Structure formats: C-alpha cells, structure tokens
Amino acid sequence: MVLWPHLKQITVNNFHTTILLPLIATILLISIWIGPGNKVLVWFHALRPVHLFFLTFLPIITLTYHTIRHPRRVYLVNYACFCPDSSWRASMASYIEHTRLVPFFDESTFHFMKRMLQRSGLGDETSVPPSMHYIPPLDELSEYRDEAELIVFMVIDDLIKKTCIDPNKIDILIVNCSLFDPTPSLADIIMRRYKLRHDIRHMQLSGMGCSASLIAVGLARNLLQSAAPGAHALLVSAEILRQYKGNKRSMQLQNVLFRAGGAAILLSTSKANARFELTHIVRKSTSAQDDAYRCVSREEDEEGNLGINLSKDLLDIAGEALKSNIASLGPDVLPFSEKCKFLLSFTLGKVLNGRINIHVPDFRTAFQHFCIHAGGRAVVDGVQHSLGLSDEQAEPSRMTLHRFGNTLSSSVWYELAYVDAKGGIKKGEQVWMIGFGSGYKCISAVWKCIEPTQYADMAWEDCIDHLGPGGNKIPRRVTRVSII
Predict the structure, then answer these.
(1) Which of 118, 306, 475, 479 has the fewest CB atoms within 10 Å, measured from its CB?
(2) Which letter, b or e, does each residue of 422-439 get, where b requires 16 or more Cβ atoms within 10 Å of its Cβ?
(3) Is the confidence at residue 482, as pLDDT, over 70?
(4) Which of 75, 217, 80 shows the shortest CA–CA distance to 157?
C-alpha cells in the first residue's frame, strides 16, 4: 500500500510510456501469436467498427481524460531569501532624520511621514539599498542595476548551495520585478551569469505588483506540467526600490513601507529532495472594475514626480478580492463539517429571510500556518480579523513586517522562512500563502509539507532567537479594520 502513491505518480508522469506502449505491444503480440484459424482472431474479425472503437480508443480516451484531470504534481524543492548587509540597515531614528534632511520634502510631508513610520509596524533592522542612504538619494541606472544584481545573485547562489542543483538542469526561468525593467532583462542577466542552457524557457513579469511571486508560481506550475518529467523551474522575485520625491500624501507609503528584499525558489515535478507539494493555487483579479484598477497605480503627481499612488479604498477592494478568492478555494480545502455548517446556515438564512447569520468558514481547520502578504500593519490586521486568526498564526507576517518591512512580492517567502526558522512546520501540515497586488489581484497558494527542515534561512538565522514567543514579540495594534 505504501508503494501505491509512488506507482500512481510514475504512471501519471510517464503516461505514454507506461500505458500506451504496453497496450500497443500487447495488441501486436496477440496478432503474432494467434494463427489464422484461431477463434480469437475470428472473433476480432466479426466485431463491428463501433465495437472496435469501444475496445481500443475508449480506454485510451479515458486514460487521457484522467491524465488531464490529474496532471503532474509540482513540488517546492527549496527557497532562499535575501539577507541585506548591515550597511544597508535603516533604523527608525536614522530614517526619520534622513527624511528630514532630504531637500524635496516640505515640512508637512516630513511630519506626515514621521507619524506613518511610527505607526507602520516596522522595526529598526529594515534595510534600504546604498543609493538611498545618500542625501539626496542617487537616481542612476547603474545604481539600480548594481542593487538588482547583488540581490538576485545572492539568493540564487544560496539556493544552488541549498539544493546542489546544476544550473544546466534548470528548464524554466521566471523573474518578477515591477519597479525596475532593464534591457537586457533581469532574466537575460541571470542567464548570462549562470550560463544557463540556450533552450531554456525564460521570461520576466512586470507590473504585477506584490502578487507577482505567486503569479510566477502559477505560471511555472503550468509550464512544468507540460515539460518533460522531472523538469526544474527557477523563480526569482526581486523589487528594486525607488524613492518618491514629491509631497502627495497618497504616494508617500512607498517611502514609508517599502524595503529591500528578494527571494529565489526552485520548483520541480520530481519529488526527490522536495520540501513542499503545491496542492492548490487560485488567482482572482478585479481589474475590470474601475476603482479596483486604479487603487494601486504607478503614475506622476502634479509636479511630474513618479511614484505609486494608493487609493483610500484599498482595504475595501482588497477585501472583495480576498472574498472572491476564498469562495473558490474554500470548497477544495475546507473539511466536510465546515461545508455542512455553511450550507445549513445559508439555507436557513434564505428560509428565514436573513434573520440568521451565515456561518463564516473557519480556515484554521484546513491550514496550520498562514503567510499573509506583509503589505502593511492595516493589511495584516484586517486579514487576521477577517479570518479569525490568532496572534500566533499572524505572527510570521507581523514579524516579517517588523524585521524586513514590506519587501513587496517576496514577503510571503520571508514569512515561510520565519515559520521554518521557528521549526513550526511538521510533515503533512499545510501552509496558506495569500498575496495581494495591483490590478487588483488576490492570489492563494497552498503548500503541503513533505520534509521539515532543521535549519533557518540566512535571512533569519542571526535574529530568530530573539523574535517571537519568548523574545521581542510585536504587540498587535487594536483595530476594527475588516478586510472582508
């Protein structure tokens, strides 16, 4: 019985070899072995075409349909997060002082940013690149390119060290970066640095915002399922920081929350040495709605300064996107008891004309760990309140925000690394990643642990002992914000 899942996976991954070829070989052997007067051959000749169709093509069609409905499984082999050098560090006091000295912020903007920083949930160990330590910050292409190469090469080197993979074994490369789009692309820069194969399928995603990393996971899954068995996909998530130089308040959160970060992820259809299995991924976009389309946009202010404008309705729009996402994810992951409670309350609500509250499914019954995009304190508080999560379950997101700030699309990997560093993920437990991004999009990815780790990622190894329970636990701000 233990071998059955492995045999089934081998059959699915090698469909043509394990099913079609033996079937064809069997038919040929029968044709050779039976003589012209054999009753079996006479019976075959007596069959009508429709019978021959059901006898030969129907099993093949059935097996093909099964393969389509049950595609190859995709696994997370391992991942690595960027750990900035101590010279990148921007403590709260130094960052506030730096903001005061920058010449393009007026007095009211400085006081606004100071208040936002003090309430942001960020700690004294977040980091910004060297170009942003200058007064005024350097705004040169060479600086952005150096920052990108340092982050990207460091996380890929660490991932190769963890997985011992030969770069020639990488079949797919997907890079996401929304704020920096050089030519040649970052994907081409990586290919040149690591001498990847000329036939590799590589691409770069831009404009997807903080959801880009999980969008890349979905794209890699589809490509891997159509690639040769045992193929590998390298995903690189990095956002290169730029400072907004204007005084429009709705565009200041870019300066307040965004910090340096990045991650590299290795996916494969081979279970060998893998740590997680990707069980579900759900993507919902509300871009067709005008308010959702404009709620996060990169634009110029009245003075021509480029920055990211965040709408005051962002939390409400994020709530609608999350609601749509979990409506699709819930039926696939929730236990039978939770589905029954929801159906019963929904039916009674219809019968009693809404005089009974509809049961909100408890996703804590389906997942043991939660990685909520660390977009800001209000986002984490809102999702925690809406899903009914405990402070311990929201801790990875809150600690990531405190230690690293909003690292945009890579934040969910810092959160997974935090749980790993605490030794909190056991075999068979599930992790729910929730990403939000411009458009407006909400992405869910569900990972099932198949091999726990005993080692902390380099991003957390120097500080994990004094964070979380028994250490420097960050208190949750009292809030009534609901994201759903």
Answers:
(1) 475
(2) bebbeeeebbbbbbbbbb
(3) no
(4) 80
| Residue 149 DSSP label | H
Enter the DSSP assignment of 334.
S
Q: Please compute, for residue 380, the number of CA atoms within 13 A of its CA located in the half-sphere on the CB side.
A: 34
Question: Cα–Cα distance between 437 and 375 in angstroms, integer?
Answer: 9
Q: How far is CA 439 from the centre of its chain?
A: 16
Whether the bond between 440 and the residue before it is cis, its omega within 30 degrees of 0, is yes
Coil, helix or strand at residue 113 = helix
* CA distance to 99, 105, 305, per residue, from 133 (Å): 10, 16, 20
Coil/strand/helix, residue 285: strand
Q: Output the pTM of the full model.
A: 0.84
In the three-class reduction of DSSP (H, G, I as helix; E, B as strand; rest coil), residue 290 is classed as: helix
> Residue 4, class by beta-carbon neighbours within 10 Å (0-12 exposed, 13-18 middle, 19+ buried)?
exposed
Task: Work out the average pLDDT over 290-309.
Answer: 92
For residue range 385-440, list pLDDT tens digits in order: 989 999 999 999 999 999 999 999 999 999 999 999 988 899 999 999 999 999 89
Looking at beta carbons, which pairs linking 85-88 to residues 24 or more positions away fall under 8 Å? 87/130, 88/127, 88/128, 88/129, 88/130, 88/260
Closest by CA to 136, choosing from 255, 270, 237, 239, is: 255
Listed in sequence order, the residues at least 6 apart from 172 whose beta carbon sits closer than 8 Å to its beta carbon are: 200, 201, 202, 220, 223, 224, 227, 231, 232, 233, 234
C-alpha pair distances (Å), 272 with each of 232, 276, 441, 450, 456: 11, 11, 33, 11, 21
